[in-house]
């Protein structure tokens, strides 16, 4: 497994309007300071801190809740074409 040594700010900047960052408030893998740092560096980005208490391994118990949340986030960006 490779270690991530630093955030790829160039790629984030190029794609900021396409990205949603969702940080866990109680995630030991990713401290809240990371959320605060990226909010400061990209103040116009869609960067969110979990208010639902989801854990890092959300797929084990709250996968449906997270999926519903993501659908709400992206539904405005999706379009359906009837052929």
From TrEMBL:
Entry superkingdom: Eukaryota
EC number: 3.1.1.13
Biological processes per GO annotation: lipid storage
Catalytic activity: a cholesterol ester + H2O = cholesterol + a fatty acid + H(+)
Keyword Acetylation included in the entry's annotation: no
Keywords for this protein: Hydrolase, Lipid droplet
Gene Ontology CC entries for this record: lipid droplet
Similarity annotation: Belongs to the AB hydrolase superfamily. LDAH family.
Protein name: Lipid droplet-associated hydrolase
InterPro entries: AB_hydrolase_fold (IPR029058), LDAH (IPR019363)
Organism this protein belongs to: Lates japonicus
Enzyme class, UniProt record, top EC level: hydrolase
One Pfam family linked to the record: LIDHydrolase
Localization annotation: Lipid droplet
GO MF annotations, alphabetized: sterol ester esterase activity
């Amino acid at each position: 497994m490779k270690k991530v040594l630093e955030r790829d700010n160039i790629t984030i900047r190029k794609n900021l309007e396409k990205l949603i960052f969702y940080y866990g408030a109680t995630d030991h893998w990713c401290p809240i300071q990371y959320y605060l740092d990226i909010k400061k560096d990209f103040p116009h980005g869609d960067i969110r801190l979990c208010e639902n208490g989801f854990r890092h391994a959300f797929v084990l118990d709250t996968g449906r809740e997270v999926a519903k949340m993501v659908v709400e986030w992206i539904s405005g960006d999706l379009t359906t074409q009837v052929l």
